[in-house]
Amino acid sequence: MFIDVAKIHVKAGKGGDGIVAWRREKYEPAGGPYGGDGGNGGSIILKADEGIRTLMDFRYKRSYTGQNGEDGRTKKQFGKAGEDIILKVPVGTLVKDANTEGVIVDLKEKDQIFVIARGGRGGRGNAKFATATRQAPGFAEPGTKGQERDITLELKLLADVGLIGFPNVGKSTILSIVSAAKPKIANYHFTTLKPNLGVVRVGEEKSFVIADIPGLIEGAHQGAGLGHDFLRHIERTRVLVHVLDTSGSEGRDPVEDFYKINEELGQYNIKLIDKPQIIVANKMDILGAEEGLAKIKKEFEPKGYKIYPVSAATSGGIDELKYAIWDLLSNTEIIYETFDEQFMHEEDIDTSIIVKKEDGNYIVEGAFIERLLGSTYFDDVDSLRYFQDMLRKKGVIDELKELGIQEYESVFICGYEFEFFD
User: Fold this and answer.
1) Is 283 annotated as a binding residue?
2) CA 202/CA 353 separation, integer angstroms
3) DSSP count for the chain of H helices, then E strands
4) Mean pLDDT value across residues 90-117
5) Is 194 among the annotated ligand-binding positions?
6) Is 383 annotated as a binding residue?
7) DSSP letter string, 174-188
8) Is 353 annotated as a binding residue?
9) Would the annotation count 281 as a binding residue?
10) pLDDT-derived band at 269, boundaries 50, 70, 90
11) CB 3.0-4.6 Å disulfide test: which of 126, 224, 236, 382 passes with 35?
């Protein structure tokens, strides 16, 4: 598991200006104000999409600007609203303010949406300002600016694809070719002492995470060669890519290797045997590989396995392998699991809230409140309302009342002074 991070700039569109216009028609000599309102600016919207697996696309484009609203028109016609921009992000993306590092939203549900930058409001035309005493207003309202902010997208990634096989069959080399990962590679066993992960981009909004799972040897299910640690990572993958040394350069039989590795998987967790698995016949550039490939095909093609001959040394066959993995992933159901503490190796998020009265002062503090405060824009009505609603939902208002706070008294929230209103 590793953290995929992208920092981007989002700027919503400006609202269109209202206009000053007058009704000028043949049979309306005393025509009144006729100016229409400007259209609202386009917003920047984040949407959690389970078809998106990584944040790689945001490394190619880092700035997003919403469309401005059109100015109002005569005959009280509204200007056209600017189009919203919808940015698709993976389910589980944490969105932070890049300046304060405060958490804005956790997009943890499929199709969840969040307006990260709201478009500016269109200005009112002079027709909206007409009253009984002001029948000919000669002014209109300009549109307001859209919200603009720098945000950080953060995603905890687990591998979609696990590269499995005996040590020194070329897994790390394959990983380095298909992704931007830079694993340590050498011609001896146990080069890799922890899973190396990389992101593979197939096309726009098409990418996946691949991991070189090291240390699989006979006895791994009993802990040999750090087996339990590595097998735990395999449990979280959706697809397995089994790399075999087709040339037999290590003096081993690739067919026997396949069965031995799968036996270790089954001994650890029988469900691992049911994971979709394709075979990579590696080292096709070495003398004797053709004979090995023929043997592998004879053994496994009748059993329904897809076999992809490649040479990690020359990159031969790598593109075909990459697209084959993507096709397999696209047809494999995503299963969301609850990660155990041993696997996550993360500190629990502190959600405690402290409400107290000291020396006559009412004080609210805690990690959760600090994050909430840091992600609130107090000049934005929706953001402020969300802040107030969260204080109420978390019981902060009730606790302050129990401590005896009265209307208009001060309450200090993480060092900032607020006036209390119920």
Assistant:
1) yes
2) 45
3) 9, 18
4) 91
5) yes
6) no
7) HHHHHSS------SS
8) no
9) no
10) confident
11) 126
Whole-model pTM? 0.53
* Cα distances (Å, whole numbers) of residue 70 to 10, 125, 147, 202: 20, 12, 17, 38
193 is in an annotated binding site: yes
Greatest alpha-carbon span in the chain: 101
**332 is annotated as contributing to ligand binding:** no
Both structure tokens of 342: 């041993």
Report whether 180 belongs to an annotated binding site: no
Residue 407 tokens read as 């209307």
Distance CA 101, CA 370 (A): 11
Q: Which helix (H) or strand (E) holds 15?
A: none
- Do residues 115 and 136 lie in contact, with contact meaning Cβ atoms separated by under 8 Å? no
For residue 320 the two structure tokens come to 């075909």
Task: Give residue 354's identity as a one-letter amino acid code.
Answer: I
Question: Per the annotation, does 191 bind a ligand?
Answer: yes
Amino acid 184 reads K
CA distance 384 to 367: 19
Confidence at residue 123, expressed as pLDDT on a 0 to 100 scale: 92
230 token code pair: 């590595």
Determine the Cα–Cα distance for residues 164 and 300; give it in Å rounded to an integer: 17
Is 391 known to sit in a ligand binding site?
no
- What domains are defined for the chain? 2-156 (2.70.210.12), 158-336 (3.40.50.300), 354-419 (3.30.300)
Annotated binding residue 171: yes
339: its two tokens: 């990660």
Q: Any binding-site annotation on 309?
A: no
User: Based on the number of CB atoms within 10 Å of its own CB, is 126 exposed (0-12), middle (13-18) or buried (19 or more)?
Assistant: buried
Token output for 305? 């396995």
| Token pair of 400 as six digits | 């302050």
Banded pLDDT at 376 (limits 50, 70, 90)? low
User: Do the annotations mark residue 312 as ligand-binding?
Assistant: yes
The amino acid at residue 97 is D
**192 assigned ligand-binding residue:** yes
The answer to whether 378 is a known ligand-binding residue is no
* 43, 118 Cβ separation under 8 angstroms: yes
214 is in an annotated binding site: yes
170 is in an annotated binding site: yes
Establish whether 120 is an annotated binding residue.
no
Does 285 count as an annotated binding residue?
yes
